[in-house]
Design goal:
Layout: H1 4-14, H2 38-48, E1 77-84, E2 95-103, E3 113-117, H3 125-133, E4 137-139, H4 140-148, E5 151-155, H5 179-182, H6 187-200, H7 208-214, E6 221-226, H8 228-239, E7 244-250, H9 265-270, H10 273-292, H11 295-309, H12 327-334, H13 336-340, H14 345-362, H15 378-382, H16 395-398, H17 401-419, H18 432-446, H19 467-476, H20 489-492, E8 504-509, E9 534-535, E10 550-555, E11 565-567, H21 575-605
Parallel strand pairs: 3-5, 3-6, 6-7, 7-8, 8-10, 9-10
Antiparallel strand pairs: 1-2, 2-5, 4-11
Helix pairs in contact: 1-3, 10-11, 10-14, 10-17, 11-17, 14-17, 18-19
GO molecular function: carboxypeptidase activity; dipeptidyl-peptidase activity; serine-type exopeptidase activity
Family: Belongs to the peptidase S28 family.
Keywords: Carboxypeptidase, Glycoprotein, Hydrolase, Membrane, Protease, Signal, Transmembrane, Transmembrane helix
Length: about 600
């Protein structure tokens, strides 16, 4: 499992938690208000966006060459391509500059082009240097480039980072042209960007003949991505198999749907049973009081939640008083340990994300808790000696659900404080424009909204965090021109979790909350899963695995995008090393086909 330093390195590449890949990153909908509340909600976005072998090979042609003499190989190469804004309307001649970065130290004529998709966040200079030029980092695309004498590209997605086609507000991050801008941020436009790039690739420092040799009809292009970029890696092999020869799709939630409440199943299953039972009891208690409680009890629950939120060091305030908290505000505060923390379960796993949180709940001592009333202050919730000995069935079973609720708020406060303790090497801040762009993608097409499983017996999330509230406050408050519901068919057209592309390796973490929407899902985490079996047997070039199998592997005990990057010291035996070994075996099987097909085509042309 990745340690904190590994994930910090990933964060800096895509400027997000979770990928974290994040990606990075995490794919979630966050509160966005328009008009007078837009600054508050953009602060909230910052808070929540949390929420990623050297050897020669026989297939290389003998006519190899290195880079032109005099071109520096001291670090990553930064470049841009002038990209059409609209690929599907030839009368629209507007363009923008799309950024990309290269490492060509290992490149020889005929070597593959390893195209790494950075996805839903801008690419930072620090991240590029760590990924493409830091010897202490093992980055899968660079490792593959070294083995196969290839070239590595990091690609920045349109509307992120420096590849923003439109001017944005310096205050809100929203494109000044609003819908007239975001209408061009679609799955199809972004996929076509990559196709246009392969056909017009013109890296600095190469002659025209060398550039032509790098085009997709002369060299194999291989897409690598995790999370949303993993979706794109899989979809491109369905959409444009003649352009991108192969893909590695890591942690790809390809099944688009509105309700993604199954996201929380791997989290709940990873928690100790006493802790998950107490979280359920605490959340249920709060919800029931807010819906059916007496006025006095409702006031106390609101006050306690409002005070607990004040522990947030970023000082994201949902309302100036407890009475002004909406039920949706309350659901956002209560879901902090599972969705909004910078140390999400999907990126860090149970111990780093929730271990101490659960410990604070289970050792919370009700005997030194002063009964909470309308005059109680923050210290009534934040202070406890943690002297209770945990019991197998939990605090609520031994005492009461009300005690579990106050223990939950105490643990939330302690987690908020510890999550934001000073770090010696914090990731760079995430741009507001990036978060707005990703929210538009979620609201318009991607969906997969993380919501409550109420009334399920193991539910961890307030019932008020539901699809209708998320669409209302996360989408339409910011984008009144967004569709009533996201157009998930835009993704499902490529098959969703039924897809069977060839020349694709799928990998996933066993405990990844996003696995429930992937081709490697199972009914243990998603009752609707197809139960497709994974196989490590490399299928023949141009053929999917036999039957309904999926070529790839589910990494035991791992979480989200755990196999594309790690530190050199943690490389041996890691999912990165094992993933490279399996994908290497696949490329050894598949790449000769590219040259066979090319030779046949050349013969026809002659």
């Amino acid at each position: 499992m990745k340690d904190a330093e590994d994930v910090k390195a990933e964060l800096s590449l895509v400027d997000q938690v979770a990928r974290p890949a994040i990606p990075s990153l995490n794919i979630s909908l966050y509160p966005l208000y328009r008009t007078s509340n837009v600054l508050l909600c953009l602060l909230l976005l910052v808070f929540l966006y949390a929420v990623f072998l050297a050897s020669s090979v026989c297939w290389l042609t003998p006519n190899t060459f290195n880079k032109e003499d005099g071109l520096s190989t001291s670090g990553p190469i930064t470049a841009t391509i002038t990209m059409p804004l609209d690929h599907f309307n030839l009368s629209n001649t507007r363009t923008f500059e799309n950024h990309y970065w290269m490492n060509d130290i290992f490149y020889k004529y005929g070597g593959p082009i390893f195209f790494y998709d950075a996805g839903e966040a801008g690419v930072s200079d620090r991240g590029v240097n760590q990924s493409l030029g830091d010897p202490s980092t093992k980055f899968a695309p660079v490792e593959l480039a070294e083995k196969y004498h290839g070239l590595t590209i990091i690609w920045e997605h349109r509307f992120y980072g420096q590849s923003m086609p439109f001017a944005v507000s310096n205050v809100t991050g929203i494109a000044l042209d609003e819908y007239e801008a975001y209408r061009y941020l679609t799955i199809e436009q972004a996929l076509e960007d990559a196709i246009y790039f392969t056909k017009n690739f013109d890296p600095p420092g190469y002659s025209m003949s060398q550039v032509e040799a790098m085009r997709a009809d002369r060299s194999p292009w291989i897409w690598i991505g995790g999370s949303y970029p993993g979706n794109r890696a899989a979809m491109i092999r369905v959409r444009n198999p003649d352009i991108f020869f192969a893909s590695w799709a890591s942690s790809a939630p390809v099944q688009a749907q509105l309700d993604n409440s199954v996201y929380f199943n791997p989290i709940q299953q990873s928690m100790p049973t006493n802790c998950s039972a107490d979280v359920h009891a605490a959340i249920t208690y709060a919800d029931e009081v807010l819906v059916n409680g007496k006025e006095k009890d409702v006031e106390l629950v609101r006050r306690a939640i409002w005070l607990a939120n004040s522990a947030n060091p970023w000082n994201v305030s949902f309302a100036p008083s407890p009475a002004e908290l909406s039920l949706w505000n309350i659901s956002q505060i209560l879901s902090y340990p599972f969705l909004s923390t910078p140390f999400t379960f999907q990126a860090f796993g149970y111990e780093r994300s929730l271990g101490q949180f659960c410990n604070h709940i289970e050792t919370w001592n009700p005997s030194n808790f002063t009964s909470f009333n309308n005059k109680s202050d923050f210290s009534a919730l934040s202070t406890n000696d943690h002297s209770r000995i945990p019991t197998p069935t939990g605090l609520a079973e031994a005492t009461s659900s009300e005690h579990a609720f106050h223990a939950y708020l105490h643990a939330l406060i302690q987690k908020s404080i510890s999550d934001f303790s000073p770090s010696p090497n914090p990731p760079p801040p995430i741009s507001r424009a990036d978060k707005v762009s990703w929210t538009w993608q979620l609201c318009s097409q991607n969906a997969k909204i993380q919501v409550s499983q109420h009334p399920a017996p193991h539910n961890l999330i307030s019932r008020f965090l539901n699809v209708s509230n998320q669409l209302r406050w996360s989408c339409h408050a910011m984008f009144p021109y967004a569709p009533a519901v996201p157009d998930v068919d835009a993704m499902l057209r490529y098959g969703g979790w039924r897809m069977r592309p060839n020349n694709v390796m799928f990998t996933n973490g066993e405990l990844d909350p996003w696995r429930g929407l992937g081709v490697q899902s199972d009914r243990g985490i998603n009752p609707d899963a197809l139960e497709r079996k994974s196989t490590r047997t490399v299928p023949s070039c141009g053929e999917p695995p036999e039957g309904d199998a999926v070529f790839g592997v589910v990494w035991e005990g791992e979480v989200h995008v755990s196999d594309l990057r790690t530190g050199r010291e943690g490389f041996e035996g890691s999912p990165v090393e094992r993933g490279l070994e399996l994908f290497g075996r696949a490329l050894d099987e598949w790449l000769p086909c590219f040259w066979d097909e090319k030779s046949e085509w050349d013969s026809v042309m002659e």
